[in-house]
Design goal:
It contains eleven helices and 13 strands. By secondary structure, it is an alpha+beta fold. The protein has three domains: 90 residues, Rossmann fold (3-Layer(aba) Sandwich), CATH 3.40.50; 98 residues, ATP-grasp fold, B domain (D-amino Acid Aminotransferase, Chain A, domain 1), CATH 3.30.470.20; 78 residues, ATP-grasp fold, A domain (Dna Ligase, domain 1, 2-Layer Sandwich), CATH 3.30.1490.20. Strand 2 and strand 3 form a beta hairpin. The longest helix has 23 residues.
Amino acid sequence: MAERTVKIGLSLGADICWPICYETLLSDLKLDVRHGGERLKFVSERVTIEPFNLQQPVSYEVVIDRLTHWYSTSREWIKKGILLDDLYVYNNPWSLQSNEKHTSYAAMMRLGLPVPETWMMPPKAYDESEDLQETLRQYARMFSLEDIGNELGYPFFMKPYHGGGWKGVSKIDNLDEFQRAYDGSGKEVMNLQAAVLPHDWFVRCVGLGPQMRKINYDPAAPLHDRYRTDIDFLGAEDTSVLEDMTVTINSFFGWDFNSCEALRRDGIWHPIDFANACPDSQVTSLHYHFPWLIKQSAMVDFLRRHGSSDAQESELGSLLCHCRQGYLAARETGGLR
């Protein structure tokens, strides 16, 4: 039986504890798997940042990506790996790049999820460009913060449309606070979202592949205490709703790893923040839940290596194959010039 080593790449930014624990677990497991006539060993390696030839082969079969939502060089290397080398990556870099929180609100509203009323605001300030003033003169319309606040209703939250890990998020209780927050938002494009108050549960449901972890979440607590340690605190119906919601969101956007924050009011779960495709994975914040994350990461990598339903491969790979066949056939028959 032929032996082969499967390499798992870790595309990392400032992560410290997560990769150390993952690498140690994978090494200690000493996996020795017989599959498809092969005997497979598994190792992990941290992906480096350096110049690359687009046709240089990628040595990994799976990459766990924790970097490319903000670092372009690694994101483009990953895209090239998927297109040219059949690399599997979670999360899908095209979906991660194009679907910010604002887009996710619109998509899930279309699917019928009870997302709170949400508005988008033009930025307070702009980078100057040659066409800016003429564009604003012709098309920008004056608006009243007082009218918008009254229509949306207080309180509401103002937050950057692309996310940012609580950066720039403000709770707005009245017009004066709205004015100060908007004046201070600078060049950021902001969403306004109605507050779900009062609510009796705030839950962050972490989805990693098919596995779900429902965590009682307290955003007002210090960082180390936001993820509560409650277990089985939800009934079967609430658990089912949250899991279905998270699976729907992740399936729609093609994300393997994401978290969905939802608030329950009057028995209805309202998703408020669910484009978190690079969720918090540090032991200092997850603490009690951290071992679950590491074990599920290893399991998902193994399943992705042996699964038959990889969307990136079955859809994109099939498209590329058909396009290539059509191109070659057209060349042979003189259909392309």
